[in-house]
Amino acid sequence: MKTSKRILAVFLAVVLAFSVFAVSAFAVDGSMTYTVVADSTNYAAGDTVTVNIYLKNDYNATCLRFPVLYSADVFEVPTTGVKLTAYDDCLTYKGSLEANTSNDESLYPVEYDPSAYGCVLVQWTASVTSTNIGCFNSAESVKCFSFQLKVKSTAGGTTGSIFIPSESTLFYNQAVTDVTDATTICRINTTLTFEGLDVEIDAGGSDGITTYAGSQVIIDYNNKVIKNWAGLTMSLATIKANVQPLGDATLTYAVSTGSAGTYGTGAKVRVWLDGALLDDYYILIYGDVDGDGSITVSDLSVSARTLGNLDTLEDIFVTALDTNQSGDVDISDMSVMTRHLSNTSVIDQTL
Ligand SMILES: [Ca+2]
Ligand SMILES: [Ca+2]
Known about the structure:
Elements: H1 2-8, E1 11-12, E2 22-38, E3 48-57, E4 60-71, E5 75-76, E6 85-86, H2 88-92, E7 94-96, E8 117-126, E9 142-151, E10 159-160, E11 162-163, E12 172-176, E13 184-195, E14 201-202, E15 209-211, E16 218-220, E17 225-227, H3 236-242, E18 243-245, E19 250-254, E20 268-273, E21 276-283, H4 297-306, H5 315-321, H6 331-341
The structure holds calcium ion (CA) (2 copies).
């Protein structure tokens, strides 16, 4: 099992600078609920799995660390690495959220066999100013972090788990009692609760479509879109080189209905099984609103023309226009597009 052990030993470890704070001796009581939710419950070999972590708590958390384990014979870290993303207050007050692939086994939950489980160690520290400290305190369960795993190409027909081990010694919690006092940090006597610990993954596959091994492309089975085409020259050949049918399924392809439509946003990969249409998956390139497969000033023109009249756009183009992936479309999305076109920043295609 040397190969799997190597894969398992890939940790997402974050080195944070706690030393800037004096940690008070006193502690306060609090509770935190961690919920692990994957973007589907059914995957095929080669699929990308987006793992979402939802948090709910009743204190001003300023620092968190928790391990997420996954079955090593079913999942692996994608070749592009674990892409750890923060949301909600954990994004707003993000001071430190970094990823590396340390093999430091001291960071491994000792209660678990490294030959059976891989570990992603998530760590977050809020930012501070001279008068205030960012913190996470949410009475509602909200999405705070996500990262990606890949179902191994050899995992067809198996089942795996993704979960937070409640008995791990790796949890770390830090908080403030007064958000205007950034210097008095206290420990939390935290009652940890875990929901959705065992996300069972049927890797047998019934979706009829998957990516080729090594492909950067992501199939979002919930939203029926195929994304992360950044850097690829879009064409029918590119699509065919990245996605493939599974089992007895077959694929056909249709050009985009966008104003410049070819094989860009809005193009369809149609999945057929036994002569019946199983699903349509849409090509999605954030920022490509005219459907030609690239992001140009033409997309800016279409955006300006349709921003106040989104009803005229098919849903997939509205999604492509939401370039900051906020869930709605407004003028800030055009700013993101403008910055992309001026090479100031790049539109993230992976979320
Ligand atoms: Ca375009
Ligand atoms: Ca938006």
